[in-house]
Amino acid sequence: MSIFAPLSINRRGLSFLGTLAFMTAFFGARVFAILNPTVVVAQGTIHFHHFWYGLGMITLAGWLGIAFNRPRLVRTYAIIFGLGAGLIGDEVGLLLTFGDYQSSFTTDFFVGVIGFIILASTLVRYRKIVMKDVTHTSWNERLIYIGINLAGLSAIFFAVNSITAGLVLAAIGIILIISAFEAARAGIAAGIISGSIAAVGNFLLAQNYDVIGRTFEGTPLAPTGAIESLAAATIYVLAVDVFLAGVIGGAILGLIFARVHERYLKGRSLRTRGIIFGVILWILLSLSSFGSEFGLLYDTISVVIGLVAYLVYGILLARFFPRFKRNIPDTGKGSDGQQAIPAGTM
User: How far apart are CA 290 and CA 276, in angstroms?
Assistant: First the structure.
């Protein structure tokens, strides 16, 4: 009677044995090299590295698998192949750098191989489930995942003290996450336009403030601040209005509008609710800045510019809101018996 047990049909055990042998050889060779760094096998000027033995074992296992394909011996072939791959993996850094045994390529190779084995095994075993869970997600959900990955990768730049690159990557990730929501996209579109109006208005005010100031000289509306400091703040005003207030601020306000517009003034049209929302924003955000160092005239004109910008934002938000909102029919229950969730509700 043979000492070898019959092989299962799907041969899943071969992958397990090969992976186990790979890890055994990899860590065994690594521990031996750390404990005995001076022990080498040399013949004359030739240094025999253990990846040569690994290559020999892989070649032997492959040749035996082709020439002597015996079902009772494939487990042995899998173990020999895994041991050889582990010996090669331990010195892959040496192979790639031509002499540096301590190269980080070894760790990268090991992590990559283990990750590939896990992913490949998961796909082989649960391919249909994985494809359903991954490919059937909505674009909104994919934006969230991409944004999370970008925001997470920004930590690499922060770790090496590259603050600017980290902030840019994190900001892009946050914008993508916020953009996954339809209301936020409507807010971004409306915010960019209204923010541009506010930016242009403040820019023109800064450029012509000296002329306006001379017109009202001797009146309570006369400027009280220096023109130079106002001109220096022009770039700051443009950046804040267009990028912060327009993109991030518009997205957040769009989400707030989506939450509150159906709770209040239900009998009013969406346009009316958008205008009221814009007026409330103007009162809270624009009027609160009244009383700057540049005088009553500058504050009055700035408040008027803010009123126009926020009214435009409210009108455009109400106009874009139903366009970005997708109406997905209810598909009932999914194949797994759970209630299906519309993809556009994010």
Answer: 21
Beta bridge partners of 48: 41
Q: Helices 50-67 and 74-90, interaxial angle, to 10°?
A: 160
Return per-residue pLDDT of the chain as tens, 346 residues: 455 555 554 466 777 778 788 888 877 777 776 777 665 555 555 445 667 788 888 888 888 888 887 777 788 888 888 888 888 877 766 665 555 555 566 666 777 777 787 778 777 777 787 777 666 667 777 788 888 888 888 877 877 677 888 888 888 888 788 777 777 888 888 888 888 888 778 777 777 766 666 666 666 666 555 555 555 555 565 556 556 666 777 777 887 887 777 777 677 788 888 888 888 888 887 777 666 666 677 778 888 888 898 899 888 888 888 777 655 444 444 444 444 444 444 4
Model confidence, pTM: 0.49
